[in-house]
Amino acid sequence: MKMVNKIATLIVVGVLSLAGLILFGYNEFITKDTLQDQPVAYEIINEWQLPKELDEVSGIDWVGDNKLACIQDEDGIIFIFNLETSKVEKSIEFAGAGDYEDIRIVGKTAYVLRSDGEIFEVSDFLSGNSKTKTYSNFLTEKQNLESLAWDKNNKRLLLAIKDRELKDDNYKGVYQFSLTNKELERNPLYRLNMQDSLLRERETKLNKKLQPSALSIHPKNKDFYILDGRAPQLVIANSDMKLKKRYGLHEDDFEQAEGLTFSENGRLFISNEGKGGKANILEVIFK
């Protein structure tokens, strides 16, 4: 009888331990946000379904003439998507397979960010005779970079850490890459404060309060728009990167929000990976 009781006790302890591990894992990956339960404060005014080759769309940027440059996180190809025809009208191969996460167009040059911080410069990307240069830096895949912004007034690109800073979970750095000397400054230009009061309603680990999947600068007011695809949210910061407004994005509308860009006159576009459905691009107005 004692042996039976001992076995029963071990079974109960084992089941409870397993349940604890499952709960810990669940909490590790789940983010709760009260904004998700509130009425939406945005309007989707246009939607474009993307073709199969862009199921993994990870970054978009405005080219002009109602066209967007798109990349996906598997192949080194830039796709030119025409919003008027809803078709890819051109594909530009710039590198081999890789985890490409964002793209910015600067004149006739496309800059593509890989998740390990490597920057690909594709000059004359629309000419049919493009050339690619790469720039390495001190960032790695441990930081997991998915967002790249073009700061036109200061002739630089901005890269935001998604996962973790090297030594501090209290902030995530936004680093500047000079388009003059093609170097990444070691000290962050801005610091996204993970303890900001605006992020208080996000119930998750400190370093997961804000995980930038895209970063763009509004062409008119110069505010920063920061997209986060995890329990999706859009955070707006002023020109000094001080957070000032936050929107919850319903997952029914934004299954996996990865890319964000503006047209010259301020139209805002967000791209979503397929994630079991069809990838799309949405034109959104925030209230």
TrEMBL record:
An example GO CC term for this entry is: plasma membrane
Its transmembrane ranges are: 7-26
InterPro entries (UniProt xref): Quino_amine_DH_bsu (IPR011044), WD40/YVTN_repeat-like_dom_sf (IPR015943), YjiK/CarP (IPR009722)
Protein's organism: Salegentibacter agarivorans
- Has the keyword Transferase been applied to this entry? no
- Top-level taxonomic group: Bacteria
Put simply, this protein is called Uncharacterized protein YjiK
Query: Keyword Transmembrane on this protein?
Result: yes
Cellular location(s):
Cell membrane
Leader sequence range is none
Key words, A-Z: Cell membrane, Membrane, Transmembrane, Transmembrane helix
